[in-house]
């Protein structure tokens, strides 16, 4: 079936036919996955031996020919084989390509011809590339004017390097053909063409499932495949080991450096304090905003700088090694509420109550590069680590979600109640929103689906920050109006711990990104607790 016999021989031997299943799993599926895994690991003789002994092939000659055609850049041959593909479920003969349900052969042709077009441009065969664009791509993309315009603009590239940069493409001799094959293989039925590295994907899913089911996950090491995974509850952080009391008033915000070696805090007393996260000694005590409280701070991606923003209507950049001021931005008309860095480490974004500068991007010289909106004030914001999403929270009930690359507004969301903080997970998939009604909500940013809700803490009229944390970001943690810290299992929403922390209010929490057994909190009692 599906080209799975070897040299025409049946998988069942003449005398002793093996069971059609392996411990309840389809024997052919298991064997083909093993053959692929052995080949992936370089054990080609072993892979051939398993194929010979079992009678199962990894893929039919037609599928193998299609794979070779794509990797060799034989585009006419690849399209010829694709032309013979049939849809999944159709009756067929031979061992040809079978498309996965919902796959569109024309879309696959567009990808092949686009690769062909780019490779011709890379070789400076502009005339041939133009013919491909006009006679091969345009008929298939007649409704995709923006795509055709983007491809046409590449004809003006002056060099291969310029082409690669503008097309975000690494060339014929990079990984582009492998990437193309990977995309094409997802549209071909796995019954004839296994998805790439299938065993590795399955094993990763097993590990993720075991981590997801571990209520007290504190191990930064991936689970072993030799045994079922479980973490000892005694290793979970619940005990205060240090109280840091160098602030003279309410502490509003804390943040670990990305390497986990330092901690920064700020609040009502106008100071930003940088602490050593191992000795808990003060490294720098910076009088950041002499005329008002420090509302927020953010570490640069390389941990070399910190932005602070304050009620004095200024945002400032500081050198974290020396504690010295690098730059003060132009004065805002209202307090600056929030700040985050772009992944490039050369620009950053501020949020402000000043509607004229509500949501702006700046460079290190203090030049304003872009202003997203003047329709609302911004109370908090977040940028996804992959640089795709920018989320702004206004002073009412709305979230504003932008494509950070194109700077376009993707969508707006009315939460029906006022949010107090926003945060994005390290995998850039999930948005965590804390709200005044004492509920935190996990949202899939791309699909806008509400994934999970976390209850048990109390909101209020002031900013209460929640965060992701722990090994593999397995937990959600939040401060609370009643001074407690609540911790939930991220995927299940199960409450894990409720800890007395600060009185009368716990304002912010932050988990050490490199130590799953350490987090910090701060509150109106003027203390930072580890």
TrEMBL record:
GO BP of this protein: proteasome-mediated ubiquitin-dependent protein catabolic process
Placement of WD repeats on the sequence: 244-285, 287-328
For region Disordered, the annotated ranges are 1-22
Q: Which residues span the membrane?
A: none
* Domain of life, per lineage: Eukaryota
Q: Does this entry carry the keyword Repeat?
A: yes
InterPro entries assigned to the protein according to its UniProt record, in alphabetical order: WD40/YVTN_repeat-like_dom_sf, WD40_repeat_CS, WD40_repeat_dom_sf, WD40_rpt, WD_repeat-ST_regulator
Keyword Repeat: yes or no?
yes
Give Gene Ontology CC terms. Answer: GID complex
One Pfam family this chain carries? WD40
Q: What is this protein called?
A: WD40-repeat-containing domain protein
Q: Which organism is it from?
A: Lasiosphaeris hirsuta
């Amino acid at each position: 079936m599906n080209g799975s016999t070897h040299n025409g021989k049946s998988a069942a031997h003449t005398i002793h036919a093996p069971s059609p299943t392996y411990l309840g799993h389809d024997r052919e599926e298991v064997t083909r996955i093993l053959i692929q895994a052995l080949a992936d690991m370089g054990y080609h003789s072993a892979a051939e031996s398993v194929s010979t002994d079992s009678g199962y092939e990894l893929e039919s000659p037609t599928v193998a020919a299609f794979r070779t055609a794509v990797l060799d850049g034989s585009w006419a041959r690849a399209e010829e084989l694709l032309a013979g593909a049939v849809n999944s479920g159709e009756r067929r003969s031979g061992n040809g390509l079978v498309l996965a349900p919902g796959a569109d052969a024309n879309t696959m042709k567009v990808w092949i011809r686009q690769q062909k077009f780019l490779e011709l441009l890379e070789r400076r065969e502009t005339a041939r590339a133009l013919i491909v664009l006009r006679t091969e791509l345009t008929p298939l993309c007649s409704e995709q004017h923006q795509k055709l315009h983007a491809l046409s603009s590449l004809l003006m590239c002056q060099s291969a390097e310029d082409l690669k940069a503008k097309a975000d493409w690494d060339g014929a001799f990079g990984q582009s053909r492998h990437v193309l094959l990977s995309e094409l293989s997802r549209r071909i039925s796995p019954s004839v063409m296994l998805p790439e590295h299938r065993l590795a994907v399955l094993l990763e899913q097993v590990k993720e499932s075991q981590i997801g089911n571990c209520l007290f996950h504190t191990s930064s090491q991936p689970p072993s495949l030799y045994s079922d995974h479980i973490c000892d509850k005694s290793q979970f952080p619940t005990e205060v080991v240090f109280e840091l009391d160098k602030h003279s008033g309410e502490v509003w915000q804390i943040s670990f450096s990305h390497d986990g070696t330092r901690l920064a805090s700020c609040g009502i007393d106008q100071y930003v304090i940088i602490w050593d996260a191992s000795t808990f000694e003060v490294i720098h005590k910076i009088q950041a905003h002499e005329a008002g409280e420090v509302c927020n701070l953010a570490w640069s991606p390389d941990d070399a700088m910190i932005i602070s923003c304050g009620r004095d209507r200024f945002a400032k950049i500081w050198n974290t090694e020396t504690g010295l001021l690098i730059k003060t931005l132009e004065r805002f008309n209202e307090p600056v509420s929030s700040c985050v860095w772009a992944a490039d480490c050369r620009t950053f974004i501020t949020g402000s109550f000043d509607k004229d500068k509500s949501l702006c991007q700046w460079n290190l010289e203090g030049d304003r590069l872009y202003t997203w909106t003047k329709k609302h004030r911004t109370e908090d914001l977040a940028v996804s680590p992959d640089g795709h999403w920018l989320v702004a929270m206004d002073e009412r009930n709305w979230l504003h979600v932008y494509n950070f690359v194109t700077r376009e507004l993707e969508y707006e969301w009315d939460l029906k109640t006022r949010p107090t903080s926003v945060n994005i997970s390290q995998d850039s998939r999930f948005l965590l929103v804390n709200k005044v009604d004492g509920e935190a909500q996990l949202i899939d940013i791309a699909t806008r689906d509400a994934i999970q809700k976390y209850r048990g803490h109390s909101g209020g009229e002031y900013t209460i920050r929640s965060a992701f944390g722990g090994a593999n970001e397995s937990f959600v943690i939040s401060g609370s109006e009643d001074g407690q810290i609540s911790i939930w299992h991220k995927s299940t929403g199960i409450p894990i711990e409720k800890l007395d922390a600060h009185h009368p209010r716990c304002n912010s929490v932050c988990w050490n990104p490199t130590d799953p057994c350490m987090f910090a909190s701060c509150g109106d009692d003027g203390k930072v607790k580890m």
